[in-house]
Amino acid sequence: MSQDTTGVLETLTINTLLTASRIVEQQVGGTVQTIATNGTIAIPTYQSVVRVTTAGAVTGVILGVGSTGGQRVTVIHEGAAANTITMAASGTSNVADGTSDVITGPSARTYVWDSVTALWYACH
């Protein structure tokens, strides 16, 4: 089983009374998903960075459903600039801004899952 990210816990001790921690995502080797029109960007369990590419411009794309409120996922589009990824309508794509959400290559976009609306919201 390949993984695209692993979480590493970093702890910083300021003094004996204050300690701060955060989980840092690290990308490791993994599979690039090739997305086609009306395809789905799958979010593997315990991963928050997904690598994708396309053979050309694609539309009607779906982003897999989130698992918990506040979950974040970053989609890295490794394709050419002309090979845009356009999401399907909001109710189909699980992305709040639906067809207005276009990812050009090469670039990345981070989304946050809202478990109340059951939609991903792009972080701009």
Could you name the key traits of this structure?
124 residues, five-stranded mixed beta sheet, disordered N terminus
Low-confidence stretches: 1-6
Computed CA radius of gyration, to the nearest angstrom: 16 Å
How would you sum up the major sheet? 5 strands, mixed
Number of helices: 1
H/E element string? Answer: EEEEEEEEHEEE
Strands across the major sheet, in which order? 3-5-7-10-11
State the domain count: 1
Could you explain how this protein is built, in words?
Residues 1-6 have low confidence and may be disordered. β10 and β11 (119-122) form a beta hairpin. The protein is globular and about 55 Å long. The protein has one domain (30-122). It is mostly beta strands and 124 residues long. The strands form 3 sheets. It has a 5-stranded mixed sheet. A 4-stranded mixed sheet has the order 4-6-8-9. Strands 1-2 form a two-stranded antiparallel ribbon. The protein has 1 helix and 11 strands.
Short description:
By secondary structure, this protein is mainly β. The chain is built from one helix and eleven strands, in the order E-E-E-E-E-E-E-E-H-E-E-E.
What is the strand and helix layout of this fold?
Layout: E1 5-15, E2 18-27, E3 33-34, E4 40-41, E5 49-53, E6 58-63, E7 72-77, E8 85-87, H1 90-93, E9 102-103, E10 107-114, E11 119-122
Parallel strand pairs: 3-5, 4-6, 5-7, 6-8
Antiparallel strand pairs: 1-2, 7-10, 8-9, 10-11
